[in-house]
Automatic annotation (TrEMBL):
Region (Disordered): 621-646
PANTHER family according to UniProt: RIBOSOME-RELEASING FACTOR 2, MITOCHONDRIAL, TRANSLATION ELONGATION FACTOR G-RELATED
Residue ranges occupied by any Tr-type G domain in the UniProt entry: 3-259
Presence of the UniProt keyword Amino-acid biosynthesis in the record: no
Protein known as: GTP-binding protein
SUPFAM superfamilies: EF-G C-terminal domain-like, P-loop containing nucleoside triphosphate hydrolases, Ribosomal protein S5 domain 2-like, Translation proteins
Biased composition (Basic and acidic residues): 631-646
Source organism of the structure: Paenibacillus xanthanilyticus
Protein's UniProt keywords contain Hydrolase: no
Length: 661
């Protein structure tokens, strides 16, 4: 059943103008008396201290407005790559998207990353070319770039009237009569061609009549947009409020309504967690089916538990409104779920879509605190932040009194330090970040463990360990029959294998491995279920000791654009960094180079690029996967806890830990 509302995310590279666009949308819809300013720190959606001071979005912010009688849940997402995890979680719950591109900078690194995710998730998308009034705005060149780098099905819905200081607004291409100016006529032709390519009836009319009428375009456009066969492009200058009305009109007219029914069983997902000093944990929920009301007890499918709703509030920037219920298709903040986590599925997973991983932290960093007395408070604060951003993957080592987190980059580290200071009143600094390597089995082999003492215990396991294809992760299966090893024990082994592979021979996570349980045995009297919790890591590490491991390093896929005169210097730099790249392509006076670049050798490259090209080079980079490191690269990580290869010490430590639980 179609529901009369829109769930729309605003996405872009940093500084393309998402938050400014959101402010003017809220103002035009009557939610704000006047739009706030990013520069002055008065925006509705950037309300954290760090966001106001830095002028960037750090967290995805949900707000609500009405346009043309249609409620719109609007989510303003961060643009900086360091906060890509917020974008990743938002993408999952959107029915439509607005991708904002600067008319000056064009398609940038984050733009392409988000575009790829939008396409993989099948989310209908409008493209909004902002900053048309800025010096250097070039709508024709950027439109050509969008069509080349993003999609040839991107087509203008309006034509811009001027550019830079002469930008006065836009003219609809569906105007009822001809008489377009030269530029507008060319834009209209692009629109007609895109519609004809995506619609069979329109193609027949286009070929027969040499063009399409306004009526034919209007009839075909909504369906083409909703099935991702066409991506309308609009133009504006959000800081002056120009083009925002047309964008809102297109959101309502062309982006899809959510599907779902309040009569079906509850099916939803938690996509964001925050903490309120008075109300406790807040779970932001997108509901696909069913309805939730105050005082309802709702099943958390992911955690196999039930929790009671104490309050449901609708979000509008910093303001909330108690609605008492959340129905299919809508988004709201739910209070009372103390154990909810990001990604938890509610009720049934029948209607919940899959997710697309964008954010892959490639750096790890150790946190340090000024005063020893702050240690417990620092741990508690980071645990709270890790609830709000699981990508931090908090590693707390009580015995060493150490705390490590995974980060996307240095900006995220600076923001974390600021949040610790402003929110928790704690002074925290970070060591220099190190690259996160991984390991993979070097050859096929077997691991064996016979955990028979000290009594009472009995667990025998034999694993076959083989290298897997690059990027395949961990694949596990069992060939052992139930009469040799009970199903309940086999489930315990399956659960523990990924945990056992978190630290390989060099201390890094093991990946791209195929693990097969080929032999297993329990004892009717002596076996305790926890025996396999202890035995599994010993069997896995015995196997890795036999196979050996290879070091894997993370790679970036990059595209570098520089003036041609700097090309030779840049190619030499790339070779020194062990980059592998295609022959450069020359377009006008600029050279474009695409290829793969190791993270470890290029940490400071973005900062150096400016001086190497006098500020005229641009770099787009995204995570491309892991590859085998050269033989001369050696990177070891200190193991956390007792090594299972030291079986006597490991058994003693593990049994003591289990007994204390």
């Amino acid at each position: 059943m179609t529901i009369a509302m829109r769930n729309v995310g605003l996405f872009a590279h940093v500084d393309a103008g998402k938050t400014t666009t959101t402010e003017h949308m809220l103002h035009l819809s009557g939610q704000l008396r006047a739009p706030g300013s990013v520069d002055s720190g008065t925006t509705q959606t950037d309300w954290l201290d760090v966001e106001r001071e830095r002028g960037i979005s750090v967290r995805a912010a949900v707000t609500r407005l009405q346009w043309d009688g249609v409620p719109i849940n609007l989510v303003d997402t961060p643009g900086h790559v360091d906060f890509l995890s917020e974008v990743e979680r938002t993408l999952r719950v959107m029915d439509g998207a607005v991708l904002i591109v600067s008319a000056v900078e064009g398609v940038q690194a984050q733009t392409e990353v988000i575009w790829d995710a939008l396409r993989q998730l099948g989310i209908p998308t409008l493209i909004y070319m902002n900053k048309m009034d800025r010096i250097g705005a070039d709508p024709d060149a950027v439109l050509a770039q969008i069509r080349r780098l993003l999609s040839p099905q991107a087509a203008p819905l309006v034509s811009p009237d001027g550019k830079e200081s002469g930008f006065a607004g836009t003219t609809p291409l569906l105007s009822g009569v001809g008489g377009f100016a030269t530029g507008a006529a060319g834009y209209r032709e692009l629109l007609e061609e895109a519609v004809a390519e995506g619609d069979e009836a329109a193609m027949e009319a286009y070929l027969a009549e040499g063009g399409l009428t306004d009526g034919q375009l209007e009839a075909a456009l909504p369906e083409l947009v909703r099935r991702r066969a066409l991506f309308p492009v609009l133009f504006g200058a959000s800081s002056r409020g120009i083009g925002v009305k047309e964008l809102l009109d297109a959101v309502v007219a062309l982006l899809p309504s959510p599907q779902g029914s309040s009569e079906r069983p509850v099916s939803g997902v938690v996509f964001k967690i925050e903490r309120d000093p008075a109300m406790g944990r807040i779970a932001y929920v997108r509901l696909y089916d069913g309805a939730i009301r105050n005082r309802d007890t709702v099943r958390n499918h992911s955690r196999e538990l039930e929790e009671k709703v104490t309050q449901i509030r609708r979000l509008n920037g910093r303001k909330t409104e108690d609605t008492g219920q959340l129905e299919a298709g809508d988004i709201a903040a739910v209070y009372g779920w103390s154990r909810a986590r990001i990604g938890d599925v509610l009720g049934t997973d029948a209607a919940v879509p899959g997710e697309r991983r964008l954010a892959v932290p490639l750096l790890t960093v150790q946190a340090r605190w000024k005063n020893d007395a702050d240690y417990p408070a620092v741990i508690a604060a980071f645990q709270e932040l890790a609830d709000e951003d699981p990508q931090l993957d908090l590693q707390w080592l009580p015995e060493e009194r150490e705390l490590h987190v995974k980060v996307m980059g240095t900006i995220q580290m600076e923001v974390l330090a600021h949040v610790m200071r402003s929110r928790f009143k704690l002074e925290v600094a970070f060591d220099e970040p190190t690259v996160i390597y991984k390991e993979t089995p070097a050859a096929p082999g077997e691991g064996f463990v016979a955990y028979l003492a000290p009594k009472p215990c009995w667990a025998i396991l034999r694993f076959r360990i083989e290298p897997g294809p690059r990027g395949s992760g961990i694949r596990y299966r069992s060939l052992v029959r139930g009469e040799r090893l009970l199903e309940s024990y086999q489930h315990e082994v399956a659960r523990r294998v990924p945990e056992a592979l978190q630290q390989g021979l060099l201390g890094w996570e093991v990946t791209d491995a195929e693990i097969t349980l080929v032999e297993g045995e329990h004892h009717v009297w002596h076996t305790h279920p926890l025996d396999f919790v202890i035995a599994t890591p010993m069997g896995i590490m015995d196997g890795l000791a036999n196979t050996g491991t290879k070091l894997l390093e993370p790679l970036l896929r990059f595209r570098l654009s520089v003036p041609e005169k700097y090309g030779g210097k840049l190619m030499n730099e790339l070779m020194l960094m062990r980059a592998v790249f295609e022959p450069p392509a020359v377009q006008g006076e600029r050279m474009e180079i695409e290829g793969m670049l190791p993270v470890a050798t290029s940490l400071d490259f973005p900062a150096r690029l400016g001086s190497l090209t006098k500020g005229r080079g641009t770099l787009s980079a995204s995570f491309a996967g892991y590859q085998e490191s050269p033989p001369d690269v050696r990177a070891e990580r200190r193991r956390r806890g007792v090594d299972p290869r030291d079986q006597a010490k490991y058994i003693l430590t593990a049994r003591s830990a289990l007994a204390s639980q």
